[in-house]
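Case study B.
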Amino acid sequence: MSEIIKTWHSLTEEDTQKAAEEFASIASAGICVGFAGQLGAGKTTFIRHLVAQWNIRNVTSPTFALVNVYHGTYPVYHFDFYRLNDEAELFEIGYYEYLEDGEALVLIEWADMFPGALPPQHWYINFVINEDGSRTISLARS
Amino acid sequence: MNIVAFETSCDETSVAVLRDGRLAANIISSQDFHTLYGGVVPELSSRAHIQRITPLLKAALEKAEISLNEIDIVAATAGPGLIGALMIGFTFAKGLALSLNKPFVPVNHVEGHIFSGFLMPDQPEFPFLCLVVSGGHTMFVLVESFVKMRLLGSTIDDAAGEAFDKVAKLLDLGYPGGPKIQQYSNRGNQEAIKFPIADVKGRYDVSYSGLKTAVLRFVQKAQSANSLTEELKCDIAAGFQATAVKTLTRKLEKAIKEFKPASLSLAGGVAANKKLRDSITSLGLQYHIPVRIPSFEYCGDNGAMIAFRAYSLVSSGEKFTLEYEAFPSFFSSYIAD
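Model:
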């Protein structure tokens, strides 16, 4: 079961950056983080500020490539499940092999598409766009 | 010098033959069944590439009126792309090179796009400014020679083609998004809805994430007001397309002023967008710079550009071994930041 351990209210990209930096201070190699939230909710933005803490600057959306690999303080595997239709395709793209790399961080956008594909121990960050355009970002741990 | 080249980085399987720098065959098998699924399906991609690669090679050799024994170089896309799809063409080509005992040349897919203007009768002149726009890439590259390029800027989040696809999906227009947005735009008024152009810190970087979100919020409001008519969709598409194109041309104009290139080029799948082609042609006219845009056949993924890129590398004295590995993410030894 997962419990929400922290919630941020973000009005601007700077707020999202602060949340990402705060999460970076507790994140380390070997973890897997799932990200959920509608198109444009700020998932890629959060990830960009998160991995900047590990000297990675070239973050872009992996929607097309399905996975981007970055090399910084830690290797980071940045996945995007948006274009996938079937959980079996994760096997085809080598997802489970990336998960086994204990030295790396695995970050997954649209993780809610295949919740069963996340390892038993993982972090989960959910983005909600509020009526006024601000974002509620909640962090949970399983 | 006869080159056979394989391209399998995404949803097209393509095999081309280049004879002494001249294109002799470029066979493309578009995996059109992807339209049924609303996007490229990785598993289907890899399997379809396997099924198609041998028949396509035969067809390309036949078209070029050449036999395998006359091939001097075997080339293939090494990346970036879907690794499962890439590996099919890449491994097939390595095997072929080994069996023919001929050199193997790995080609960067984006570099293939950058030089696709050379497949046209009027070729770009160095130094040229190239805008590469596709589903996975948005890059401004200053091309000084076949082996020396500078990456001026790129997208900091979504690629231009991805923005087209995602907005098409928001509007429920179908896949592929680019042509659909263009169709709807033609029937809409691009002045009706003004979407913002993102301000980005990097001089030549662009961002499409904010534009995507702006369209999303507009669509949601219209949906909750029950006013998302076909007419409104056309106006949204037109407003989005105009902003997406302006995002690119604004930076291009800035780069023209700073670097004074000898020509302008446009490459990649989004280069098929008519509004973008027209806008860049206008820029060229305004600054008296020749504009070299490949024909539609060479805008999307194709083997011809891979063959030409291999030719330009070999002609520049570059050498490669069979130990070279495929790579899913962008990496180039010829493009400096």
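The beta strands of chain A are 3-10, 32-36, 67-71, 75-80, 105-109, 123-129, 135-141. The remaining cases will be described in the next quarterly update.
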